[in-house]
Fold Secreted protein.
Amino acid sequence: MRMSRSMASATVAVALLLSLPYEAAPRARVKRPAAAPAPFGAACRTEVRGSHVTAYCHNPYPEPDRVSLHVQCDRWWDVGSDGSPVAAGPAMTVRLTGRCWKDVGAVWVSHQKG
């Protein structure tokens, strides 16, 4: 019994593919997902009472977080303030305070790896 030409060429192609070294065999390239960044950042809550501002920041992570309180006053003549960074270590809560002469316009806390 004789093999047809198409069957013979398919058999030769399979034999060649099987004889190639593993590195030379074609395969799909799959990108691996990047590693997720480590969690970072203290959770902060702010309180505004009249012209006084207080922020409490708790850092539940092992990396220290340097937090700063920023206060923007409502009146144009009232100067806002940017607090100095305070280190909130692992499992530590820090208290930050600030104030305006009259009314508080906006309050936020910034974070830095520290």
User: Anything to note?
Assistant: Strands lie at 43-49, 52-59, 65-73, 81-82, 86-88, 92-99, 104-113. The chain has a mean pLDDT of 86. Residues 5-19 form the longest helix (15 residues).
